[in-house]
Amino acid sequence: MKTERREKIFKEIQELKRRLSLVERKAAALQKPKPASVRNAFQGKYPHVRIDPQLLSLVGSDPPLSLAEEKRELRDAIAARFADK
């Protein structure tokens, strides 16, 4: 009985360590400074395209969005931008 309880506790500790490790990695990723060169990288790749600062501010925004959410946000911002014209 004691052995089973020890094994259960050991498995719980392993799971908690795994989850803590994931949280620590995510926290470290959030603390990394964003490169100020996002605009420069885009302009380097597309030199003839005018960059809308409002749309650029949505790219890689905090809190991090899933790719689907980021695409939806960009679509909505673009649609709103062209609806005004």
Describe the protein's topology:
Blueprint: H1 2-31, H2 38-45, H3 53-58, H4 67-83
Features:
85 residues, mainly alpha, 0% strand
How would you describe the overall organization of this protein?
72% of the residues lie in helices and 0% in strands. The model has no long low-confidence stretch (mean pLDDT 78). The protein has two domains: 32 residues; 48 residues, no CATH class. The protein has four helices and no strands. The protein is mostly helical. The longest helix has 30 residues.
| Shape estimate | elongated
If helices are DSSP runs of H or I spanning 4 or more residues, what is the number of helices?
4
Could you give a short account of the major beta sheet? none
The helicity comes to over 70%
Total domain count: 2
Give the oligomeric state of the chains in this entry, treating copies of one chain as homo and distinct chains as hetero: single chain
Distance between the termini: 74 Å
**Overall residue-averaged pLDDT value:** 78
Q: Residue ranges: pLDDT <50 for 5 or more in a row?
A: none
Structural class: mainly alpha
